[in-house]
């Protein structure tokens, strides 16, 4: 009898474990079985990181340096080379899947025959093979390339929030392939754009926050053979004007996106085949069909200040933040991707956006006086996007009337207003655009990242 009770107890425990594991899956087991012949549960669903991030050893960022289309193998190789991964060497660390013309997925090598991979915003899974996916249209496909790590990784740890009265510590840590001893170079900034001020050369720094200002840190570490790596960190000052107010506004934007993602996840538990198929994608542009995303884009340029503040103030760097960055690019008419290059996470977008805005007046002026043909100058101005409009209009008012078509094209392309009256010509010609829109666009460049209430 005692033996029977023990056996029954073990059976109950095993059943309980199985039920718990199944409950943690984002979709029915059949969804995973149809795509992989060898898989097991490793971690819960999350919109904070995707397959590429996990393959890079990151679990708090949604990383995707390309645009709407999935990258080619050569584009992947180019990006990973910049992250210190190559197609030769040892040991193997990252595997790409799909085809040479469209890489759709990444896994991280965990053993001589095993991998682990994050399925989009779905589960983190263990796989008993380096090539665990079926070659069908609904799966990730076969192995494309194997990449080997040569990276040196630097991370800053420290508080996200502080105030005028506190004293705080920030430390740098080094991991990956690096040779000690290390040299530390700390720099700080008040706006997150220009890190020119010296902050110290030790592994850890202790200091107060600047009075009523946020502190942006940049740490460059050099190892004994000259290899370098960089990390960024920001500590927000809660005593700064409007910091709490803007944090609340930013959280509302992110909450809307997250609600949409949560609703999608709920559908994945139902019989709908669409939801889990979408959730298994690591390409963030696949999620732009969500109504929550479209709602933010529909707000137009008025959403741009809050989008930047939301990303900058967020403690996370996941899919929600990435979708806000995409929305800003769609609203502004410039995604800063530089032909599928450039930024790979929302926080990187925020820094690129800051540099882009800071340079806008000078960039417009250089194009206006470049001596290029009228057609080329108009095309170059249009490529800058909506934030260029106030400064193009300044040039028009100063006499460069031939460049007014650039504003008209931006207004038409981005839906910012009507066209000028057909009988208005020459200096008298005006564009039909809301003055408040002009004010917002100009303030993006002239005001602080987090504007006053």
Structure explained in plain terms:
The protein has 453 residues and is an alpha+beta fold. The chain folds into 3 domains: 150 residues, no CATH class; 85 residues, Sandwich (Immunoglobulin-like), CATH 2.60.40; 88 residues, no CATH class. The chain contains 15 helices and 17 strands. Strands 1-6-5-4-3-7-2 form a 7-stranded antiparallel sheet. A 5-stranded mixed sheet has the order 9-15-14-11-12, with no helix packed on it. Strands 8-10-13 form a 3-stranded antiparallel sheet, with no helix packed on it. Strand 14 and strand 15 form a beta hairpin. It is globular. The N terminus is likely disordered.
Descriptive labels:
disordered N terminus, 21% strand, Immunoglobulin-like, 17 strands, seven-stranded antiparallel beta sheet, 3 domains, 15 helices, 38% helix, alpha+beta, five-stranded mixed beta sheet, 453 residues, globular
């Amino acid at each position: 009898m005692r033996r029977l009770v023990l056996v029954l107890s073990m059976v109950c425990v095993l059943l309980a474990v199985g039920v718990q594991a199944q409950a943690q899956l984002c979709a029915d087991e059949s969804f995973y079985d149809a795509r992989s012949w060898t898989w097991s549960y490793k971690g819960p669903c999350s919109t904070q990181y995707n397959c590429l991030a996990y393959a890079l050893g990151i679990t708090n960022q949604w990383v995707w340096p390309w645009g709407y289309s999935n990258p080619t193998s050569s584009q992947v190789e180019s990006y990973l080379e910049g992250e210190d991964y190559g197609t030769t060497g040892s040991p193997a660390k990252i595997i790409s899947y799909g085809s040479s013309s469209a890489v759709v997925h990444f896994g991280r090598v965990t053993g001589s025959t095993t991998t682990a991979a994050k399925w989009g915003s779905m589960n983190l899974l263990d796989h008993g093979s380096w090539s665990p996916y079926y070659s069908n249209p609904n799966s990730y496909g076969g192995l494309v390339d194997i990449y080997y790590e040569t990276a040196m990784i630097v991370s800053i740890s420290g508080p996200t929030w502080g105030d005028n009265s506190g004293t705080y510590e920030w430390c740098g840590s080094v991991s990956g392939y690096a040779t000690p001893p290390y040299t530390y170079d700390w720099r700080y900034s008040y706006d997150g754009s220009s890190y020119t001020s010296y902050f110290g050369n030790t592994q850890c720094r202790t200091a107060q926050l600047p009075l009523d200002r946020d502190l942006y840190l940049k740490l460059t570490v050099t190892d004994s053979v000259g290899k370098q790596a960089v990390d960024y960190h920001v500590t927000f000052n809660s005593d700064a004007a409007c910091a709490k107010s803007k944090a609340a506004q930013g959280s509302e934007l992110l909450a809307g996106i997250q609600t949409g993602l949560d609703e999608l996840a709920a559908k994945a538990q139902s019989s709908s085949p669409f939801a889990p198929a979408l959730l298994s994608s690591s390409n963030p542009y696949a999620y732009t069909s969500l109504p929550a995303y479209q709602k933010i884009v529909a707000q137009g340029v008025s959403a741009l200040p809050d989008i930047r503040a939301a990303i900058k103030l967020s403690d996370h760097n996941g899919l929600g933040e990435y979708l806000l960055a995409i929305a800003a690019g769609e609203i502004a008419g410039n995604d800063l991707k530089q032909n599928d290059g450039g930024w790979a996470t929302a926080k990187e977008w925020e820094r690129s956006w800051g540099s882009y805005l800071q340079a806008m007046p000078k960039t417009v002026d250089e194009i206006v006086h470049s001596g290029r043909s009228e057609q080329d100058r108009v095309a170059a101005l249009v490529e800058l996007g909506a934030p260029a409009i106030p400064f193009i209009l300044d040039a028009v008012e100063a006499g460069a009337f031939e460049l007014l078509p650039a504003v008209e094209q931006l207004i038409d392309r981005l839906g910012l207003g009507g066209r000028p009256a057909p009988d208005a010509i020459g200096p008298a010609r005006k564009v039909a655009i809301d003055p408040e829109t002009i004010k917002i666009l100009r303030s993006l460049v002239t005001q602080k990242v987090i504007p006053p209430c």
